[in-house]
Structures are given as C-alpha cells and as structure tokens.
C-alpha cells in the first residue's frame, strides 16, 4: 500500500510541468522597455557628462565577463532578470551604449538615467537625462524600429512590450530633502508628492499615446534604510537606524502611485498597468537578512559601506567586501545583484506573471 501512495504525487508533478512549459514558450511580451533612474539604468550615463557613473571596477565584477557596464550594481539589475524570465535576452542593453544597435534593441531597450526623477529640477542636480528626454529617445527608437522591422511589426512590438518604469527616489533624496533644494521652500512634502504624481501621470499618458499598454509602475523602496541615509542618521546623532521620515514619505507616495495606476486603468482604453511594489519585501530583507541568505544589511559591500557610490566606490578601496552575495546593498545607495534577483523573482511571481 505504501508504495502506491508514493507513486501518486510523482504522476501529478509530471502532469503540471507538461502544462506549464508551453505557456512560458508562447510568451506574449516581445521586448522589455525601461524608463527611470539608477535602479534600472543599464549604462546610459556612460555617454553623457555627469559625475554619476559606474562604468569602472568594482562595478560589474559579477556581471557577464566581469564587465563594468554602467549598472549601479556588482551584477545584474531587476530589468535584466525580468527580461530573462520572459524568455528574452538575460540583460536589457542601454539605448546610448554604442556596443548595441537596433538589432539588439528590437528585443529590449533601456532609456533610464541614474540620478533622474519626475521633476526636471532633479535631473539638473547631477546633469543627467531628464524624463522628457528619455521620451524623446524613445520616439527616436520607434523610428529606428520601424525602419528595421517594418511598421506592422514595429507597432506590434511597441504595443505588446512590457514597459518597466522605476524612479522617484531621487526627487526626494537628491532634490527635495537636500540642503540646496528650492523645492522645499516652494512645496510642503505633501504638495511636492502631489506635484510628482501629476508629472508621473503626464509621463504615463505620453507613453500611452505613443503606443505603450503593458506598464509596470514601480513603487519606492524604503529609502530611509539605504546605507547612505543610515550613515547620515548616525552623524545627526540618531543612531544606526532607518530614517523613518524618508520611509514614511515612500510609503505615502506608494499609496498615491497605486491610486494613479487604478485611475489610469479606468480612464485609458486597453491600458494594462500594474503596480510593482517591492517596499515590504526590501524592508523584510533588511530586517531579517539571514532568512534570505544574507549576512549584512546595515552597510554596503563597497568601501566602508556607508558613503561610497559612483566614483567614491573605486577598485583601490581595500575595505570592499569579497563576496557581494552576503550583502543586501552593493554600494551606499544601490542593492546587490542577489537582492535584485530576489526582487525580480518576487515581482514575476506576484505581479508580472499576468503578462507571461
Ligand atoms: C521640463 O522640461 C521640458 C523641456 O524643457 C518641458 O517641456 C517641460 O514642460 C518641463 N516640465 C515641467 C513640469 O516644467
């Protein structure tokens, strides 16, 4: 009798696999198209004059060929893993990267720029690509795509592609809450959030008008827990804890973003927008790193782990960790590859699976 009981589950498992595999192969997303900031920038900042770059070691040391690409990470970032999960290339190339051309971009392209925000004033802080310019580049891409695959196929790709939109952190940390910012004297934080939501709505409507339909809108992370903000807290004498004001700001903004997603799905015919919110997951990882296989969450791998990013995170720093997989954060502002993978898997399983 016992042997029979063991036999039954095996049959069920084989049956489930037979059903699942054809669904994955027949995926309907022909390309991943990315807009946003350093959370998703694959190297566009390499090609512009800004100090906010990461195309040097130790960035990229766990990427293919140990190559620094301009991703603010030791390896891949979420769009790369999401692209792979859709059966596309295992990374999404940057639009301005001269190593790639429209033959590559037809299956996925990234317009993001580290340091940018919804607010034009945010992109000016570090002279990076403003969001309106990301749209201009996207329009140019559409023309190139049409010339390459023909107008019918181009229209199909534009309409069926999955758009990943991830930005907003810089509007608060680099702009509103910085000492030099004019915004804090013009707006209360609630007013500024409302202003950003209007800009976000305007942005989504523009790409919708240009053909985008499947859009994943990404929520803000618990930005008060970034190592840089924790280090600033120590200096202010608040101890090594997350900055609750910044976390509350992110939480409230995420509620507003979620509301915007619902609104645009109601208002715009054919719109399939989803809210991809990694806030709670990232907070869980930070609070309980060992249950996700990490050893360190309070400081980053690079350098002292408190301040270093971009040019301050350089290969000569002897303090940089040897195994970034043990760290939740790669530099003082950005997650490690392993954390990015956990987030991408979570979003694929819970939100983006409807596009498979
Ligand atoms: C941002 O700058 C662009 C280009 O100058 C302009 O078209 C747009 O209206 C600006 N946005 C806001 C909200 O001022």
Automatic annotation (TrEMBL):
Q: Which SUPFAM superfamilies match?
A: SGNH hydrolase (SSF52266)
| Superkingdom | Eukaryota
Please list which residues make up the signal peptide.
1-26
Record GO terms (molecular function): hydrolase activity, acting on ester bonds
- Which UniProt keyword terms apply here? Signal
One Pfam family named in its UniProt record: Lipase_GDSL
Which CDD domains does this UniProt record tie to the protein? SGNH_plant_lipase_like
Q: What family is this protein classified in?
A: Belongs to the 'GDSL' lipolytic enzyme family.
Q: What protein am I looking at?
A: Zinc finger protein
Q: What gene name is listed for this protein?
A: LOC102586444
